[in-house]
Amino acid sequence: MTRFILRRMLLVVPSLFGLLVLTFVMLRVLPNDPSAALAGENATPAQIAAIRKAYGFDEPVWKQFLIYLKQVAQADLGNSTNSGRPVVSDIAVRLPATIELTICALLFAALVGIPLGTLAAVWHNSFFDHAMRIVTVGGLAVAAFWFAIILQLVFSMHLDWLPLRGRLAVGTPEPPAITGLFLVDSLLTGRLDVFWNALQHILMPAFTLSLGGLASIARFTRAGVLDTLQKDFVGYAEAAGYRTRRIIWVYVLRNSVVAATTQIGLLFGALISSAVAVEAIFDWPGIGSYAVTAILTSDYKAILAVTLVVGVIYAIVNIIVDITHALLDPRVAESL
After folding, report:
1. How far apart are CA 336 and CA 317, in angstroms?
2. pLDDT digits over 161-211, tens only?
3. First-to-last CA distance in the chain?
4. What's the whole-model pTM score?
5. Cα–Cα dist 56/297, whole Å
6. Which of 33, 56, 106, 147 has the smallest C-beta neighbourhood within 10 Å, fewest atoms?
7. Of 145, 95, 101, 167, whose CA–CA distance to 281 is shortest?
8. Which residues of the chain are in CATH 1.10.3720.10 domains?
């Protein structure tokens, strides 16, 4: 297993290097003069020249790339033209909010999607199975921004059950920063009032973000369970007198959930990217809303920093998924 983990970590290096090359090219090519873009619209030629020299834009391209690698290694991605602070500091403050939202969305998608997919496979071609197909296709087709607005209209403005936006109610103190995740930190510090407030605020954005993932997990689980039900060991277990419930939820599901687990891991990175629209609508203070502000204000340093951070997270999650896959199915580790 140790050899498998090391190989998997080495395989992700080319992807990360490609991401660095991509962000480097984006900064140098889009727009044509990155110094002018970083200096702002009202910058004087002298200010533009000073920025060009400070960032090494007057050096050969290969040397610029080496400087860029050094800056990334030192976590020096420049200052945001919008906030005036280092973009690394801005992202460090906002990233826990996005991670918390993504984890909640993924947990909901997995806890609901896996049982629904399993039941759809067990009751193959039943009314429930056909209904689940319609629901999953709808979940993949519905636009997140439209669904978010509908939830706000119904549960916030009409029923007044849930808060409209934000991470905590105005005037509610944030829990002591331990992990940066309000739900976890409030429980660790015994602040149940803050936990309940944070839970109310995260329900609608997490449910909105989970919709596509739930549908995808349900479809993968259904396909995996249907395939496993055709295996010989299922017939042997039935002949041996095992209860159907035990066969399905213990033996069949364990051998079927590998594909769904892989999909869950891949969805983590996808949901972080998809959180841009959801965070903007619910005014969620994560890197998604930060990226929207950066795009609207042409804050190129912030945009590229968000791109780099999301790419690194995606690569780390892929490694974790592969390790989990290997633990569930040891043949995976032996084949690499």
Report:
1. 18
2. 888 888 888 888 888 888 888 888 888 888 888 899 999 999 999 998 888
3. 10
4. 0.79
5. 24
6. 33
7. 145
8. 88-335
